């Protein structure tokens, strides 16, 4: 018969295990809830920026019309006006769901409505023709004052959201620390109970050594299993954190792409409406100019979409490199011919200085995208009459290739961001060319998938050089 002391100790151990498991479960739930709170706060902050961008666009369009009397400004003004109300409603829903101070939202909504009413009044006055230059100057000052009030309200809401996030994180840290302390004490008690139970078993069953040995082996295996379980839980937490980081990164990227896609389409819509409604008022040269601008926007957006689709396939593992022998000089020659028209538009000279016997092992399609993105990047940030050089050399068992331009270059802070998607980089080319920066990120992933690495060297005002490496092809490898 098992002694009562042992039964009591076993019961205590089981209770301790249940309590410890419950505390761990509670801690995990609190951790997940805290992350959900943080995500909700980021939603609110992002939506605040969208609403502020809307009202700023509206104010810009209205002021343009009031100052110049040009009806063209009202197309953008009306388009953004339709978008503002749903964005305001979305912000309100986010704030309510996040239990944020609704009073701050109400103040912002009142300020925006006041601004809209004032702009409508001024637009009607401008249309009536009774608007002097002095009135225009006064209107500019009033508009600036109103936008300052709205910006202060937005900053107040951001501050409130950040304070809310800070408080939540502090609460989570305090609860986690408390649970950790209690769990540690319970684990110590559990270990003490196990040790004492083993001691009683040894004392009670000293004459039955074989039984005791088997019991000892069982206990050892149990301890090992608990250790393995803890290691598995730690790995699971690590994988969960990595997955969450990846998802947040993708969300940021798609937020950037969504913003960059929406703005050009608004320009396309406005230009199309202009052609439809006022076609007879334009001469042939003006129509050709508008058509050329539309073509440029469509071509740029097509490249953005292509890069985005390729990036998405890379993330899903749908694209894997198929390495072959590549004559780098011939590959670059074909690509430079494709982009020569863009270079000619800025009188930029592209020099292919690669040796004709330089052969790398690489994926044809990936190299097409990598070289195209790097050369296009050089064209974008070169000044008129600039130069781009493509060259490379073989070092041991790999080949280092570089694309060098003498354009506007980058400072150290910008160099740290060009291969990441955590921060949004708003940087136009020397002729106001637009872009998302996705091409460099895509190039980095493709280089790394082929076993290489990529980096940049640059000095502001003195150009940039992008390097990447590829495995060198062996003479025994077939084409």
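^ Assign residues to that structure.
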């Amino acid at each position: 018969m098992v002694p009562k002391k042992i039964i009591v100790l076993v019961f205590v151990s089981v209770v301790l295990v249940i309590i410890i498991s419950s505390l761990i479960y509670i801690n995990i739930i609190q951790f997940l809830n805290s992350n959900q709170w943080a995500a909700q706060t980021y939603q609110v902050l992002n939506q605040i920026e969208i609403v502020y961008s809307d009202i700023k666009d509206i104010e810009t369009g209205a002021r343009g019309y009031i100052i110049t009397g040009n009806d063209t400004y009202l197309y953008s003004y009306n388009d953004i006006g339709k978008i503002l109300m749903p964005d305001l409603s979305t912000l309100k829903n986010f704030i309510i769901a996040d239990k944020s101070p609704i009073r701050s939202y109400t103040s912002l909504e009142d300020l925006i409505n006041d601004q809209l009413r004032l702009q409508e009044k001024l637009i009607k006055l401008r249309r009536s023709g009774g608007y002097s230059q002095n009135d225009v100057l006064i209107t500019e000052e009033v508009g600036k004052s109103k936008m300052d009030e709205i910006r202060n309200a937005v900053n107040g809401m951001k501050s409130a959201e950040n304070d809310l996030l800070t408080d939540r994180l502090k609460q989570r840290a305090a609860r986690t620390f408390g649970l950790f302390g209690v769990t540690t004490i319970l684990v110590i008690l559990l270990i003490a109970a196990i040790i004492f139970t083993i001691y009683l078993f040894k004392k009670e069953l000293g004459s039955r050594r074989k039984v005791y040995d088997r019991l000892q082996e069982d206990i050892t295996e149990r301890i090992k299993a608990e250790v393995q379980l803890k290691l598995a839980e730690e790995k699971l937490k690590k994988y969960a954190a990595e997955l969450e980081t990846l998802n947040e990164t993708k969300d940021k990227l798609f937020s950037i792409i969504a913003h960059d896609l929406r703005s050009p389409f608004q320009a396309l819509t406005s230009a199309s409406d202009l052609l439809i409604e006022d076609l007879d008022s334009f001469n042939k040269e003006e129509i050709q100019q508008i058509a050329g601008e539309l073509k440029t926007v469509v071509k740029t957006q097509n490249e953005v979409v292509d890069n985005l689709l390729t990036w998405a396939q890379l993330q899903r593992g749908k694209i894997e490199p198929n390495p072959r022998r590549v004559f780098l000089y011939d590959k670059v020659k074909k690509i430079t011919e494709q982009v020569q028209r863009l270079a000619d538009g800025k009188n930029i000279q592209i020099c292919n200085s690669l040796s004709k016997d330089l052969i790398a092992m690489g994926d044809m399609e990936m190299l097409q995208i990598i070289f195209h993105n790097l050369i296009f990047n050089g064209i974008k940030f070169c000044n008129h009459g600039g130069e781009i050089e493509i060259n490379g050399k073989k070092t041991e068992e790999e080949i280092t290739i570089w694309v060098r331009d003498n354009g506007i270059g980058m400072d150290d802070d910008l160099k740290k961001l060009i291969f990441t998607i955590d921060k949004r980089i708003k940087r136009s080319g020397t002729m106001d060319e637009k872009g998302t920066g996705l091409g460099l990120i895509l190039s980095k992933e493709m280089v790394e998938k082929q076993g290489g690495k990529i980096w940049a060297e640059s000095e502001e005002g003195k150009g940039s050089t992008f390097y990447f490496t590829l495995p060198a092809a062996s003479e025994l490898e077939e084409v």
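DSSP finds ten helices and seven strands in the chain.
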